[in-house]
Amino acid sequence: MRVQSGARAVLRTAQPRTASWFAGMAFGILAAFSTVALLATSAFLITRAAEQPPILFLSMAVVGVRAFALGRAVFRYLERLASHDAAFRQLEVVRVDLLRRLIPLAPDGLGRRRRGSLLSALVSDVDELQNLPLRVVQPLVTSLGIAAIAVWAVALLSPAAAGGLALCLIAAFVLGTLASSSVAASAERSIAPHRSALADALLDYLGGLDVLIAYGAEPEARARVIAADRALTRALTRRAGGAGLAAAVLSLFSGLAVVWALIAGIPAVGVAGGISGPALAVIALVPLAVFEILAAVPLAVGAWRQVKSSASRVSDVAPSIAPPEVPADTGDQVVRPDSAAPVIQLRDVAVRWPGRPDPALVVPRLRVQRGERILVEGPSGSGKTTFAHLLVRFLDHDGLYELSGQDVRRVGSDAVRMAVGLCEQTPYLFDESVRQNLLFARDTATDDELLDVLERVGLADWLESRGGLDARVGERGALVSGGQAQRIALARALLHDFPVLVFDEPTANVEADLADTLLRDLLRAGGREERTIVLISHADVPPGLVDRRLRVRDGILTESARRSAE
Amino acid sequence: MRPLDPRLLRYAVSARWLLAGGLAVGVATTVTIVTFAWLLTACITGAVAGDSLESLLPQVGALAVVGAVRAALLYAQDLLSAHGAARVKSELRVRVLAAVRRLGPAWLSTSSDGRVTTLLGRGMDALDDYFAKYLPQLLLTVVVTPVIVAIIFFQDLVSAIFILVTLPLIPVFMVLIGWATQSVQRRQWDVLGNLSTNFIDMLGGLATLKIFGRQHRQIERMRSITRDYRVETMRVLRVAFLSGFVLELAASLSVALVAVSVGLRLVDGSMDLSVGLFVLLLAPEAFLPLRQVGANFHAAAEGVAAAEDAFSILDEDRQAEFDEVAPVASRAPADGGGTLTLERVGVDYGSGPVLEPVSGSFTPGTVTVLTGPSGAGKSTLLAAMTGFARHEGSITLGGGLIDSRSTERPWLAWTGQRPSLVSGTVASNVSLGSGEPQPELIRRALDLAAAHDVSADAVVGPGGAGLSGGQAQRVAVARAIHRTLERGCQVLLLDEPSSALDHDTERRLLSGLRLLADDGVTVLIVSHRVAIISAADAVVPVVPIRQTVRS
C-alpha cells in the first residue's frame, strides 16, 4: 500500500507520540497478555490439580488466575482511557496543522468549487484521522506484540509447537489481511458507482416529485430509482461475505494451531526430556486466546485503508506548499503611504488562478486617486472577481502593483489588507449573533458604535425587527437576505475603516428591483471620509454614483469609452 | 432501543428467512463449539493418561475437521447477514419510495429538506451493522448461551451456578451504566456537533477573516475549543467505558471462579479432569455472544434510529391511506376552453387555514399577476391549483368543476419556484413526459422562455447541476411552455419565473409569454417584480391570512 508523501506528512501529524499514548500501548499489551495468561494459567491449574499435588503447589496458579482475570478488565479500561485521551490531544494538533495549511491558501488556493460541501468533507476527513492511533496502530501493535510473546512463551515449553503457532499466525495474518483488503478494494470499485447513481436518481426523484407527477413522468423516474437500487443491491450481494472471509481464515488457522500443538506435544508427554501434562494443556490452549486477540487485525487493516484515503484527500485539498499563484506572505513592513502617489497603481499586471496556465486578467495600466470612486463593469466570467482578489492579495501577480507608492510585494499581505478591504460577492456570515459578526472587524467597538454603523448602512429597522444585536444570523447567514448580508458586510468594513474598499458584485444575490437602492445606499454609506471605492458589477449602475467607469472584456481591464459626468 | 424491533421484521419480509437461516447456522455453530471443546478435552486427558498420538489420531483429526467446519459456518453467517442486510435495505427503500409517492409533494415539502434523500441513500447503510454484527450475535446469545449453560449444568453444577450468577450481571450493569451516561452522552453529541460546525464555520469564513486580519487568532481559538472538547469528552468516557469494563470483568472473573473451584475439587479427587477441562473451555463461550452484543450495541442503535425514520414515514402513509379516496380524473371542460374561475379557494392542511380565500376569474388571452407579500400563501394557492393541496371553495374551467383530489390536470402547464430539473439533457427536461419529443417544438419553447443562449443538447446533471440559476429557471419555464404547445393546455401557471433573471432577460421572457397569451392561453404569474406587474393585464392580490382567523 503506497502512500504519497503529502499524505504521509498528514499521517505523521495524526500519530501521537506522547506519554499518555505510550501508556495506552503498555496497558493494551498488558490487557492482551492477561487474556492469554488467564487461559494458560487456568489450563495449567486444572491439569496440574488433576495430578493431586499438595495444595501449596497450586497457590501460585490460583493467585495468577484471579490476578489475570482482574488485570484483563482493568488494563483494558485503562488502555481505552489513555489512548482516547492521547487521540483527542492529537486532534488538537491535527486541526491546528490543517488551519495552518489553509490560512495561506484561502480562498483561492482551495479551488473554485462549492466551498461548503468541500469543507464539511474536509472536516470529517480530519476527524477520521483520529482512527490512525485508535483503530490502526494500537490494535496492530498490541496483537502483533502479544503474538510474539505467546510464540516465545510456548517455545520455552515446546519449540515444535511454537514453530507451528508462529506459522499459523503468519499465515492467518497474511491471508486475513489479503482477504479483507481485496474485499474492500473490490467494494470501492464496484459499489461506489452504484451508490452515487442511486443518490443521483433519488435527488432527481425527490427534488422534482411535483413536476414529475404533473408531467406524467413519475413512474419512469421511480423506475429509474428502483433500477439503481436493484443494481446496488446486486453489487452488494455479489461481494457479500467478504468481511466474514477474514474471520473464517482466522478461525481456521486457530484450529490448525491447536491441532499442530497436539501433534507436536502428545508424543512428548511423560517422555524423559519431554513435557508434562499441564504443559501440554497450556500449549494446546494458548493459540485459542492468541487468535481471539488477532481478530482485531483485519479490522485494523480496513481502518487503515480509510485513514489513508482521508489523509491523501486532506493533503490534496490543503497541500502544505501553496501554489505559486497564491502570494507567499513575505515582508512584514507596514504601509508607509506616500500621500502624493496614487492609492492604487497597476502597470502591466497579469493574474493567474492556481492550475490555469493563462492569465485570467491583464491590466495594462491603472491609476486610482485617493477618494476616487471607480466602477469595473463586464460580463460574468470576464475576470472581475480576479481583479478584486488581486487588490486584496488573495492572488499573486506579474508586473507592478503599488499601494500609495509602495510595491505590495515588499509589504506583508496582512498589511495590504489593512489598507484595502473587500466586501465579498457572498459575504460570509458566521453562525453567531449580529454583534459577533460585527465585532471581529473591530473588537473594541461599543454597542453604541455598532448600532451607529448599522444605522448608516440602513439596517436600523431590520435590527429592531429581529430583536437587536443578539439576533442570530443562522448557519451561513441563512436567516439573512442577500441584500442584508451585503449591508452587514459593509458595516464590518466601515468598523474596520479601510482606506480603500472593494465591492465585488454587491447586487449579484439581490432581486433586480432592489439592486439600485442597495447600490445607492452602499456608496452613500461607504463613500464618506475620503474613502476610495472600487465597485465591481455586471449589472447596470445608475448614473452619478461613480466617478469613472472601467471595463473588463476577455480578461483585459481598460478604461471605458463612456465616462460618467464628474 | 429495543433489542429486536418487531417492525423491522414486519416491514422487511426478507429479514424473516435471514433470521431463520441465522438461527440454523447458530445451532450448527453451537454444535461445533461444544464438539471442539469435547474433542480437545479428550485429546489432552488422553495424553495425560498416557495414550499415544496414534491412538488419539481419530480425535485429533476430528478436531481439525470440526475447526474447519466452524470456520465455514462463520463465513456462512456473514454471507447470510450481508445478503439479508442488502435485501432488507432494498425492500425498505422501495416501500418508503412508494409511501412518499402516495403522501405526495405537499407532504415532502413539509418534511425537512434533504432528510428523505439522505435516509433513502446513505442513511439506510446504518442498518448494515444491525444486520451484519448485532442481530447474528443476538441470535447466538439466544441459541448458544442457554445450550452451553445447560451442558455445563449437566457436567458440573457448581460451575453452572457461577455462570448463571454472573451472566445476568452483564445486561443489568449495561442498562444501569447506560442510564447513568445517557444524559451526559447526549450533551456530548451536542458538544461534538458544535465542535464540527464551529470548525467548518471557521474554515468557511477564512477568507473573510483574512480580509480583517483575524486569521492568525483562530489557531489559538481552535486549540482552546478542542481542549475543552477533550476534557468534556474524557469526563464522559470515564463513565461510558465502565460498561465495557463490566462486560470484561464479568466474563473473565467467572472463568477465574470456574477454574479455581474446578482446580480445588480436582485436587481432592472429587472431580474428573475431563469434566474440569471441558467446563473450563465452555465457560468463556457462554459469554462471548453476549459480549459481542454489548460491543455492537451502539452501532446497532444507530441503524435502528435510521430504520425508525423509515418506519415513521411508512406509518404516516398507512394512516393517510384511510382517508384517501380513489383518485378521479378531473373532467376536461366540454368546450375545450374557457375562463378559469376561482371561487373562495382556501387551503387548510388540518391545523387551521393557511390561505385567505382567493377569488378571481381569468380569461383566455390575458396575462394576470398574483402578487402579495412573502408568506401570504402564493405558493399554497399554486399548490391548490395544481392539485397538490386539497382546497376549499371551487375551481372551474369553462364552467366545468375541477376535482380537488386529483393531480391529473391535462388543461394545465405549470412550473414551481424551484426549477426541479432532472438528469439528462436540456431537451429531455423541456420535453418531460412527452411521448415523441420534437426538436423544433423544444427549440421554440426555449426561445419563448428567453433561453436563446441555452443549447437543447446541453447535459444536465442530477438536480439541475451544470446550469446556472437563471438558465435552470428558464429551462423550467420552457418545460411548461412545451407542454402548453404540445398538449394545448389552456392555462400556463408560473411561480416567480424571473427571480434569478436580469431586467433584459425578464423583458424577453415577458414578450414570449405575451405571444402565448395572444394564441389564447390563460397566463398566470406569481411574482412581485415591477416589470411583470406593469406588463400584466390584471393584478390579483393575495393577502396574508388575517390574524383573527389564524388564532
Outline of the structure:
The complex is a heterodimer of chains A (566) and B (551). With 566 residues, chain A is of the alpha/beta class.
How would you describe the oligomerization state of the chains in this entry?
Answer: heterodimer
Kindly report how far apart the N and C termini of chain B lie: 39 Å
Query: Largest sheet of chain B, if any?
Result: 5 strands, parallel
Q: Low-confidence runs of chain B (pLDDT<50, min 5 residues)?
A: 324-335, 547-551
Mean pLDDT of chain B, as a whole number?
84
Radius of gyration of chain A: 34 Å
Q: Widest sheet of chain A: strand order?
A: 6-7-8-3-9-10
**How much of the sequence of chain A is in beta strands?**
5-15%
Specify the biggest β-sheet of chain A: 6 strands, mixed
Instruction: Identify the most extensive interface between protein chains.
Output: A-B, 136 and 132 residues
Broad structural category of chain B: alpha/beta
Strand order of the largest sheet of chain B: 6-9-10-3-11
User: Number of helix segments of chain B?
Assistant: 17
Assign an overall shape of chain A.
Answer: elongated
The total beta strand count of chain A reads 10
Which stretches of chain A of 5+ consecutive residues score pLDDT under 50? 562-566
Output the helix-strand order of chain B.
Answer: HHHHHHHHHHEEEHEEEEHHEHEHEHEH
* C-alpha end-to-end distance of chain A: 68 Å
List keywords for this structure.
heterodimer; A: 566 residues; alpha/beta; 6-stranded mixed β-sheet; 4-stranded antiparallel β-sheet; 18 helices; disordered C terminus; B: 551 residues; 11 strands
